[in-house]
Structures are given as structure tokens and as C-alpha cells.
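Notebook, student rotation project (T.W.).
Task set for the rotation: take a protein with a known small-molecule partner, predict the structure of the complex, and write up what can be learned from the model alone. Partner molecule chosen: flavin-adenine dinucleotide. Sequence and SMILES entered below by T.W., checked by me.
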Amino acid sequence: MISKIEPEASIRVAIVGAGLGGLAAAIAIAREGHHVTVLEQASTLQEVGAGIQVPPNSSKILARWGLLDQIEAVAVKPNDFRLRSYRDGSLLSTQNMIPHAKAVYGAPYLHIHRADYHAILVREAIRLGVEIVLNARATGIDFDRPAVVFEDRTAFEADLIVGADGLKSRCRESMLGREDPPYLTGDLAYRIILRIEDMKKVPALHDLIEKPNIDYWMGPGCHAVSYMLQGGQAYNVVLICPDTLPEDLHILEADPEEMRLLFKDWDPRLRAMLDLVVETKKWRLRDSREMPTWTHPSGKFVLMGDACHATLPYLAQGAAQAIEDGAALGALLGQVNQTWQISDALRRFETMRKPRTERVVRESRALQDIFHLPDGGAQMKRDFNLTQMKPFEGYPNRWADPVFQKYLFAYDAYEEALSSA
Ligand SMILES: Cc1cc2nc3c(=O)[nH]c(=O)nc-3n(C[C@H](O)[C@H](O)[C@H](O)COP(=O)(O)OP(=O)(O)OC[C@H]3O[C@@H](n4cnc5c(N)ncnc54)[C@H](O)[C@@H]3O)c2cc1C
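Predicted structure of the complex:
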């Protein structure tokens, strides 16, 4: 176990939630020699969902933690980002990722299955001595003690409590002192995983799987994203379309026929992919609003990850921001060896992280409009810019916008944290 701080100078940190963000914080804080306990409501440690994109701003953190080899062993690196028109799949804009990401930002762009990502973080947290307590569903926070409160077990005391309990955060509601349900975005996602073996049998799909890329199709009110996963054995497809779920249900088994109908006028290759779908689910997409603060006035509690900045997945940056949060919190707590110093570290954490994550939430929401333009003047202007103009600041392919790309990918959470005054 890495231990930079003398045991008597370490603090006790309780993290609520063992998602990607909570685990990242656990690793980063434990690396600094503090004692970390993660309290997770689930009875087993597993991540649901499908693929996840890991951009250079998070892969450079994984590299710093010595985890990149393990991640790369089960990930896929896309060559290019390709934005396409929905009807015929014609290419509107391409942004190179190999060699661009490594050459310019010193870290790769990766695609990984969430379960693999989560398992690697869990293993590393345990290796570093982090305790993970399951079946621990927080019902609130006692901010002054501070302690995590449960209905069915004794409250858990620590010197610092980190609320990393995701979009539907009890910790956030406890801090606000009121209910604060996630906000509707008007969209839902179908999440699909195909077998590459099945795709190989369909000639129309060969050029999509010839080598790893990431493909986006943009169309009226909807978009689709696809990329390879699991060393090229699987293929991840996400379809975004208007939210038609009943008010009280956020995830529902979906009828593949209903899904195919929604995309019946789209690129024949996309339709050929959807023909392979046997079962799928639809997930309501929700996000959050900017909070006045992430830190409780006691100076002993802070929120992070989706609990305070849940975002639409359109920029593929939600988990990356949670990983950045974890890294930044760890780096700042690495300078703490007395409990009275915690509140200052939290103030610095919030000052450095809040503006960035809020911008990512806003930019992700703005992509909803860019991707989903109906056929017509604005769509033609978007496509003209994409096909005829060199990328400029504000370019509709946000990953190719030279200024925004640098803002996203060049960020180093450790450097930022250590240089924050
Ligand atoms: C369709 C889709 C695609 C996405 N694609 C990408 C992508 O490509 N790249 C990317 O960077 N991001 C992506 N995201 C976003 C990303 O999934 C989230 O931003 C990220 O998982 C947030 O991590 P978190 O740890 O903050 O929250 P979560 O992952 O939600 O984890 C919260 C944890 O807290 C636990 N918990 C909740 N309540 C309690 C409680 N009361 N007590 C104890 N434990 C509790 C939960 O069980 C869970 O384990 C995508 C999201 C969606 C919906």
C-alpha cells in the first residue's frame, strides 16, 4: 500500500457510493495514505450498463495510478471519431484519435465495458486497503459529527464524508434539506451490445468493424453512437430519441420492433445493426442543475460526480469528470494531515472543479440541439460547417473544435489541484 502520510497524521474518509466516481476518489485518497471506507447500497459490486468512453483527461489519471495496462488489456482504441448524416450515413466530419490523442495529450482515447472498468477500480481500491461495505444504504448525513446515517445500521463516523451516490443522490438531498429529484432532459437511450461474430455475417456492416472507430449518426430528434468493445469481440450501440417512458419508470424492457421503427429511415448500415438486436432496454436520460455549493458549511462534507453534476452522455464525459473529481480530491487531501485542514481542501476542490464540470454539463446539453436538428436551414448550415470549414472555435463537431478539444483533453486534474492556491 502506498502511504505518503504517517498513520497518526492520516484522516478517516467515508465515501457514499461505489460507482466509478466513488471508487476513483477512494483510490486517489488512499494513495495519499488516508484511511478510506466506501459505503455502497448494493449487495454486490457490479456495474450495470454497456460501453463507456474513456477520454485522455481520464486515461492520464489511470496511467498515473498504474492502471492503464490493465485497462488497455480489455479496452479498444478508436482510430477516428466520425460524424455522419442520418439518412445515408455520409461522412460529415472526422477527428483523428490515433495517433492524435497520445501524440497531443500524452494519453489514449479508449472504449471499455463498464463492468471491466468498475472491476479494475474495485481491485485497485481493495489493493490499497480501502474497505468497501455493501448493503449500506445511506438515508442521510449528520453533517456536524460528521456521520453517514442509515435506517438499519449504526451511523458511520469519519473525519470527512464524500457524497458520491450518483444522479439520485440522498447525500445531495440531505445537504439541501429537501427533495431534489433529477431533471428530465426529454431524451431516452436504448443501450445495445452486439457480438462482432454476428456483425461479420452481414456484409453491409463490414466497413464499420474493419477497424475500431467511433461513429455518430445525427438526425431529427435522435442520434446514434456505436463503437467496438472488449478487445473487438463486442460492439456497443446507443440510440438516443425522445423520452416516451411512463412518468414513474426510468428503465424499461423495450420492444426491438418499436426501436427499429424509430430508425426506419436511417442509414441502411444502422438499420442492419438494429436488425441484429434481440433484446434491449430503454433508459431515461436525466441530468442536474447547477448547485450553489457542493460543500456543507461544516467543512466536513462534499459532493462529487453525478451527485452534483450529472450530465447528458452526449460528450461522453460524465464518468471522466467523476474520475477527475476523485483525482483532484485525492491530490488536495494529500496536503492534509490534520482534520482542521480539511475544510480548506474542500474549498479548493470546489473552486477548481465546479466551473469545469458545469461547463461540461452545459456543453453536453448543447449537443442535444446540434445532433438533433430537424432537416432544414439550421441542419444545412451545420453540415456545411462540418464539411466545408476547417475546425474553428464553436465548430459543431465538439471533439474537433481545437479550443474545446484542448479544454477537455489537456486538463490534468493532478496538476490543477497541486497548483490551486
Ligand atoms: C447511456 C449513458 C452513456 C454514458 N456514456 C459515458 C461515456 O461514454 N463516458 C463517460 O465519461 N461517461 C458516460 N456516461 C456518464 C457516466 O455513466 C456517469 O457520469 C458516471 O457513472 C457517474 O459516476 P458516479 O460514481 O458519480 O455515479 P454512479 O455511477 O451513479 O454511482 C453511484 C453509486 O452510489 C450508489 N448509491 C446510490 N445511492 C446510495 C445510497 N443512498 N447509499 C449508498 N450508496 C448509494 C449506487 O448504487 C452506485 O454504486 C454515460 C451515462 C449514460 C446514462
